Amino acid sequence: MAHPTEHPHVVVHSPALDGSRRVTLGEEPLGVATHTDDVAEILRLADLYVTDVAESDLVEWQGGGPDDWPGLSEHHEA
Length: 78
What we know:
Residues 1-20 are annotated as: Disordered. The structure is a single chain. The longest helix has 10 residues, at 36-45. The protein is built from 1 helix and 4 strands. A hairpin with an 8-residue loop joins strand 1 and strand 2 (21-25). Helices cover 13% and strands 22% of the residues. The chain has one helix at residues 36-45; strands spanning 10-12, 21-25, 28-33, 59-61.
């Protein structure tokens, strides 16, 4: 019998060619993000309130961290 997970497993996938990143919860697609703020909003809409998506143990970043949005940096300058 599978062990129930203690926390949801959220994955922010490697950047696509346009720089966007898919966000999934297990096998369920939650949305597509173009910035870390998008990830936070996608999780909020899924009733997963994560204070800091960049540092949370609930979020696995694949193919780069929360600052890796190739090709999209000009759209979200600080």
